[in-house]
Amino acid sequence: ALVVDGHSGMAFMEKPPASKVLLDNMVPLTAAIEASQSLQSHIVRRYSDFDLLNNSLQTAGLSLPLPPTKLIGNMDHEFIAGRQKGLQNYLNIITTNHILSNCELVKKLLDPNNYSADYTEIALQQVSMFFQSEPKWEVAEPLKYIGWRIRKKYFLMKIKNQPKEQLVMFNEKGTLKDLIYKAKPKDPFLRYYCNPKKIQGRELQQIKTYGQQILAVLKFLLDKGFPYGHLHASNSTLSCEACKDGRSTISWLLQMPLFSDVLLTTSEKPQFKIPT
């Protein structure tokens, strides 16, 4: 099986259509509840929409203050005013949580004009078009819980005549972040990152070893002429004297006492794998 990324955004160097509005999905949305008489240029939502959203967000393990439902007397002016205040507080908590505010469910509720598309279906179409020239491959299933970016979806591919052949090994323990959060990579993102309860830091020797290995891999790639943009040495360096501006080099970081005394033997198993 093979994991592929079906990016539903623009391709690299692709020119956006003149009529297309480019959105930054990382900018959190804000919302203010107003009276039903002001409907022009507004998004209309019922209590049931908030209730549906709240049920979907239960995966995060957070206690969100959604006002309770009421079957009798729900048209009373005092009750409506109290519910409006409660829903506003509910939205304020969601939009100030950096993980929930970037959740696709929240984006669809607050901005349906820009987030109404089925991004999984769009990505599936792009993946299928790419593999049209490779008839031996077929889509096995979408991997819904990998990652958190709205317009980035993943699919499991397989060879038709060899469906059980593994071309890419799956790391059952997950990433270093999964190790710190004591998370399982197949669990939903919201469950183990939004409200972590079992964070476990690494020992100093592990931090030194991991850091030295990451820097060594980056230096190897740079020495070979392959820049790697997902990891970088940062733009500032903290010291006992001050926060010094300037971009530190990987070679300089490898000479720091925290990493320089770590000796890696050829028999030691590699701790990290960086995707290309």
Automatic annotation (TrEMBL):
Cellular location(s): Cytoplasm
Keyword DNA repair found: no
Cited Pfam families: PX
PANTHER family (UniProt xref): PX DOMAIN-CONTAINING PROTEIN KINASE-LIKE PROTEIN, PX SERINE/THREONINE KINASE PXK
GO BP terms, alphabetized: early endosome to late endosome transport; endosome to lysosome transport; negative regulation of monoatomic ion transport; protein targeting to lysosome
UniProt keyword list: Cytoplasm
Location (main, coarse): cytoplasm
Protein name per UniProt: PX domain-containing protein
A GO MF label: phosphatidylinositol binding
Source organism of the structure: Balaenoptera physalus (Fin whale)
